[in-house]
Amino acid sequence: MVYTCRIELNEITPKIWREFQYHPDVTFHQLHNIIQTVMGWENYHLYQFHVNGQVIGLPDPTFEDIEGRKELNARREMVQKHVNKENSVFTYVYDFGDDWQHTITLIKNDSSTSDPAPLCLDGARSCPQEDVGGVWGYQHMLEVLLTPNHPERDQFIDWIREGYDPESFSCEEVNLELQRQKGRLIPKSLVKLSESKKPVKLTKSVLNKHLKQLSNDQLIDLVKACYGASKEMEKFLAVRILGDEAVESLFHEYRKKVENEFFPERGHGKLKLQEAKQAISEFERLTGNVKYSLELKLIYVENGVDFTLTYGDIDERFYNSMVSMYADIIDILNEDETAELFDEYEERIEAIMLKTDGIGWGFHDVLTDLHAQIRWF
């Protein structure tokens, strides 16, 4: 059995839409991942489905208490339980800040098809850039890009991802990505696993033995395949091949990701601290560059302090996150045997501590204690 659905991004003209198939026994969380790939989003933000008066997402007890309603768990609810009649319509909301509303219509329920893998059938236009500012921000971006002498044009050209074309859409590229992710986008009951076999893990010794057996052409093909496997691998290879130039370019990219959670170029900061921290961790993993990683952590805390000085006291979770990152910074300085990092960043690290004087939750006192632990004094 296969569902054929049409999804449209609301309030955008001309329409941004896709027609796609998937097995109805997937969970709503799996459907979310299918939609992310089909539409071309980058899975940076939270989401919800609104189906027959029910809200389905990833429940947070804190928000349940505030909003006074129950949110069903998207990882447990199967689509077929809630959507089972042709022409049924439901809503998918992605990124609660930009508030991208999608309308999904079940246009066909085909019991003759047995392949459970999701498939994109057709579509039109590229989905908006992440964090563009919702419908208004997207329309403003298009207006700026279409106006040669617009004063914001250079700023937007620097900000949009390389090769972005609002009119482009490739079914073939989407289906290649869906096929790559197939194992996590079909019902768990249909994933064929052999219980008698142990999990297969590629060890370094096996990898080394295999690579030694490959010809130069085979090695080249393998590296090319790795390059196309994911955006992370593409960035990793760029660092390994292009060196410092690629590291610096990535630093500026990830710096924007961190800063945008506090002070975006448009609108107000969404303060999704976990996403900012994930960006820092990803940069560390891809580059292994200690100095730039320290710089990103400093930027995180500096922006956090500026944010609370601008908007007032936040909450304990916020300050705990700042303290944890500041402690990481101190650890990096103390692990450096040359004191070069301390010499370069001493003033900024002290400035953070001094600027917090008067902030609540004991924030200043904790940073003062951590600052005193720097071994180079």
Automatic annotation (TrEMBL):
InterPro entries: DUF6155, MM3350-like_sf, Plasmid_pRiA4b_Orf3-like
Domain Plasmid pRiA4b Orf3-like: 2-172
PANTHER family cross-referenced by the UniProt entry: LEXA REPRESSOR-RELATED, TNPR PROTEIN
Protein name per UniProt: DUF6155 family protein
Species of origin: Paenibacillus terreus
